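User: What would this chain look like folded?
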Amino acid sequence: MRIPINKPYVSGKEYDYIKEAVYLKRLCGNGEFTKRCHRWLQQLTSCAKALLTHSCTAALEMSAILLDIKPGDEVIMPSFTFVSTANAFVLRGATPVFVDVTADTLCIDPQLIEAAITPRTKAIVPVHYAGVSCDMTAIMDIAKRHNLYVVEDAAHSITATYKGQQSGTHGHLATFSFHETKNLICGEGGALIVNDPQFAERAEFIWEKGTNRAKFFRGQVDKYTWVDVGSSYLPSELNAAYLWAQLEIAEEIMQKRKSVWRHYYQIFAESEAQGLVRRPIIPAESGHNAHMFYLIMQDSKTRDQLVAELAAKSIGAPFHYVPLHSSPAGKKFSRTHGSLAVTNDLSSRLIRLPLWAGIADSEVNDVVDGVMNFLAHTYSDSAAEASMV
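Assistant: Here's the prediction, encoded as structure tokens.
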């Protein structure tokens, strides 16, 4: 694609820090750069513990272990999400219970959560779609009343806020992604944010393959040994070095993305006023991070036509998730509560537009021109056909 949906942003210091990591001769993880990233994340979130992982998927899997998820447990989540949200709990034998999203933000609808709770429900996993927070006040209230855990899937929403509080700081646990398609990146990477102190020590054991190795290197035990279940969740120090170069200029990266997002938002205002598209809706209590800009088209046929027309111009503007409840594995491992009508409808009409820090103005203009020309031709032709009838 001449203009892809995303390009990994490079700050300029990544290579220097990777060389420094090699020079320090500590490549296997939990070295100096990992510690710098941990400090940055803990300062951002004021959490009890932050742990870098090799993916957001890994952080979600750690969450399932920490919550002692077992076969027969149920975990409530949206269907409009990436497969890892469900897989992490399916791997522990639990059943994802999908409920619908709200029509404004495409985040899980709190009003539908309570009716989906059963004696087997163990946790709620809200997904902050497109860097816009779920209604965490309502979700945490439900969780408290029903004695449930909350794991925020904040893969999209690092530095985003809800009521002035950082995304990923409301639930008992939260997860971030540093995949190359996200705002801050290291190729493949993620982080587990432990907000509830009761999970802090065990999280580190799980992270270190079920051992107390980290305590040994801090001089807190005289030898390290196997103390719990766990796996290899640490990222390479090379990944951490790359990520540190991104975290150092996180605010600059966010501002670049927000500038593009605002331009799209402003330019499509008239099209929305004409009823041709719908722009993202950002609730007053949410401070988004410009992770994604999307348009909701009038119907799925029009969406698919626009995707194809932009692709013919070598512009990558795809749809997003195929709802998990409609997938073969979703039908096998999960169940739904309610009709999921909003999920089915909006997922079939959503198209994402290219957005990354550093996208050229000329590229943004080409995307806008491509969409505008499509709208002009499509709806002028429709008007002409209607007049002939």
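The mean pLDDT is 96. If you want, I can go into more detail on any region.
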